[in-house]
Amino acid sequence: MYVGRFLVAGPGIGAYRVSSRSFPHRKVVRRGDDTLTVVPTDEAEPTDNPYVSYNCARRAGDGVVVGNGSHVDPVTEKYESGYPARDALASSLLALDFEKDDYDTPRIAAVVTDDAAYLGTVRRDALLVRQVDDPHLVATYEEQDPRPFEFPPTTASAAAKTVYGHEFEHAVCAAGVRVGDGSAGFAVENGRDE
């Protein structure tokens, strides 16, 4: 099944995967110690599509923000400035709205801390933000309502590898995050040696 881009988040753990039929030549790169960014690979055709490259994970105060687009930055900024996670997600998702592409692609995001996780999505027909006590999955297609998801990884690396290897179709690249003990760990899975 093809669900497009998706993320999984629960207290202390999160992961994001790019799944794409249209823009498969992308990878996740580290930007310093606190940011992961989706960028085109050298094989990618030039494009001016604003949804191809973006920060997909950023350290934010006591947590990490994970998501599928440019909204990751304002969620991070709001959370760092003192907004509660729910409000940082809701206000940023509402302001940017769903992606204005041919598919009205939803924006998805999560704020993950050591002991809490909040998932949010904005799509043509709804804005949803909810706190979750266990790992939940939300995707841009087919799985647009957050749902419980069995997710055993306990490290950022295992989280990235698990979502990259999941049975959903058209895996391109993935990011994993682990939050705990006042620190955040990041991992990348690009499915090939870079």
UniProtKB/TrEMBL annotation:
Alphabetical GO biological process terms: 'de novo' IMP biosynthetic process
GO molecular function: IMP cyclohydrolase activity
Pfam families on file: IMP_cyclohyd (PF07826)
The enzyme's E.C. designation: 3.5.4.10
Keyword terms: Hydrolase, Purine biosynthesis
Known catalytic reactions: IMP + H2O = 5-formamido-1-(5-phospho-D-ribosyl)imidazole-4-carboxamide
Pathway annotation from the record: Purine metabolism; IMP biosynthesis via de novo pathway; IMP from 5-formamido-1-(5-phospho-D-ribosyl)imidazole-4-carboxamide: step 1/1
Domain Inosine monophosphate cyclohydrolase-like: 2-179
Record flagged with keyword Hydrolase: yes
Protein origin, superkingdom: Archaea
Keyword Hydrolase appears in the UniProt entry: yes
NCBIfam families noted in UniProt: PRK04151.1, purO_arch
Described purpose of this protein according to its UniProt entry: Catalyzes the cyclization of 5-formylamidoimidazole-4-carboxamide ribonucleotide to IMP.
Family designation: Belongs to the archaeal IMP cyclohydrolase family.
Protein name, per record: IMP cyclohydrolase
Protein encoded by which gene: purO
